[in-house]
Amino acid sequence: MYPGQFEYHRAASIKDALDLLKRYGDDAKLLSGGHSLIPMMKLRLAQPAHLIDVTKIAELRALSESGGKIVIGAAAPHDAVATSSLVRDKLGLLAEAAAAIGDVQVRNRGTIGGSLTHADPAADYPAAVLALEGEIKLERDGGSRTVKAADFFLDLMTTAVQPGELLSQIAFAPIPAGAGYSYQKYPHPASGFAMVGVAALVSLDRSGKIASARVGVTGLGAKAFRAGAVEAALAGKAADAATITAAAAKTADGIDALGDIHASSEYRAELARVYARRAIQAAVARAKA
Amino acid sequence: MRVNLTVNGQARSDEVEPRLLLVHYLRDVAGLTGTHVGCESTLCGACTVLLDGKAVKSCTVLAAQADGASVTTVEGLAKDGKFHPIQDGFWEEHGLQCGYCTPGMMMAAVDLLSRTTNPSEDEIRHALEGNLCRCTGYQHIIKAVQYAAEKMRAAAGR
Ligand SMILES: Cc1cc2nc3c(=O)[nH]c(=O)nc-3n(C[C@H](O)[C@H](O)[C@H](O)COP(=O)(O)OP(=O)(O)OC[C@H]3O[C@@H](n4cnc5c(N)ncnc54)[C@H](O)[C@@H]3O)c2cc1C
Ligand code: FES
Ligand code: FES
User: What does pTM read for this prediction?
Assistant: First the structure.
């Protein structure tokens, strides 16, 4: 199995990549880790005439802290995010999601920008990026814009990224001291993709009640989403098992759950409720009042 | 297009089609057939090699993407006529039957051992998640990695 013919370009800078995108238009695709795009090209589901490799653009690979934000370059491999001490210390939920992706070989190649743009409904990162309220920077010829995670995922494999745009980085506020978090997934036994995955971030107030909770869900519907009803059912309540179970029971409310040969929509919805409960419980257990 | 790679310590420069996969570059251009092709779909790990020290599935990397990088295949493990500890491990602990998965298993294990020479059994299983063996079963493979880890710790005096 091999891809169809194409021309390979290596972008030296963001500007270089944007120029190439402009020159080749619809015939071109950006190439990052290639762990979604190359399999699709082998199956001839994608047949771009031009590939523009963005992984040698140094600033796209950087993990840094600036202006009180943690900034993750789009071409940072999953393994780099999972093992970075900066990310583990200040953005542990993102590191946990990265470590849960596929297997080590996939994590060594695949990148966060590729994963977010590909927007596979079973991808792990989206749940964590939603819960952490990441700000996604998109560059285009002559400017850039920032899209909130909540506005980024539009539909099945469809995002806010427009033709001619390049995702350059995702910026996050560090997780507040004392907040607890957890990413829990039920992995597909063959590919490792999330049948469902839930990222929870919980802050407690001084009395030990839940001050706020953010819950991102992947795998359940056509796109990853914030479980607003679950979050509302947790806010201001005692952080006990009854509250958590009742809140998690709302995870699939109003969601058109995916059903396929791996899991019926009813089963996926039940998995989502169970994994939401586990993720919230684990987050609460780690949180400090 | 021209790609310049270092393969098992030797610099190479070759004219390739952009769509040539790294695994075919290694086998057909460089003549190193120790790297196997199994599923061709990123699932089995038979094609695992080290790219700048990290385990990757070479059926899902273009030779073009590896331009400028250093690749280690199973042929590059032995040094000065002496097996790498992971090769000793597979030998001593009967880590293979047919051997089809073995080069990929060893390269994934070498990635793990570069991160820690004191992995728990759990960590070993986790590190080999991307590699399938269809005949030996995994227990002997785990033991082979444990053997190698112990040997590497002993060599490092720890
Ligand atoms: C065997 C296997 C198991 C996997 N298991 C999991 C799993 O458990 N969980 C999981 O989440 N994922 C999994 N994946 C997917 C993996 O995480 C991919 O790496 C990821 O989906 C895509 O990232 P990439 O860097 O490889 O992107 P690529 O394949 O290079 O690109 C994907 C898409 O994004 C576009 N793109 C890339 N970079 C940019 C950019 N900077 N700006 C704009 N567009 C861009 C490309 O044009 C393309 O359309 C698995 C993949 C494989 C092969
Ligand atoms: S041949 Fe590459 S993973 Fe199976
Ligand atoms: S030894 Fe035969 S497949 Fe592993």
Answer: 0.97
